[in-house]
Amino acid sequence: MRAVIQTVSEAEVTVEGASVGAIGEGLLVLLGVTHTDGDDEVRWIAEKIWNLRIMRDERSASDLDAAVLLVSQFTLYADTRKGRRPSWNAAAPGPVAEPLVDAVAVHLRGLGAHVETGKFGAMMEVRSVNVGPNTILLER
After folding, report:
1. Annotated catalytic residue: which of 75, 80, 120, 135?
2. pLDDT tens, 103-118?
3. Of 7, 73, 80, 120, which residue is the catalytic one?
4. In whole angstroms, what is the distance from residue 13 CA to residue 15 CA?
5. pTM: predicted TM-score of the whole model, two decimal places
6. Is 6 one of the catalytic residues?
7. 111: closest CA among 69, 57, 49?
């Protein structure tokens, strides 16, 4: 599982012009899933996202009760080593990835996070204002 996490003052996901998820101060998380991911990765990444001290004054989202906007992003598993066209073979297919992305959201909510999401598999527009700028890559 891979996540790109950005601290934001605001972020929003729209699909076909309609907002499907929006937050104020918090974390924008782009999440990619590979074939071998399962419950252990779900728990680890959700807990890491919620407790990582990357927000203002070296505090975590859990310290600040900050919101999380979680957006599925299969392109995090692009393989660009050969040619000019990325390979997506390392990205888990939708039937595998979607339940795991949903499970990360459920686990975050269980930890106390307010979680908004994008729409799995949709062509999304993601708008954000990155604070810092601060961008972290997590991988397990």
Report:
1. 75
2. 999 999 999 999 999 9
3. 73
4. 7
5. 0.95
6. no
7. 49
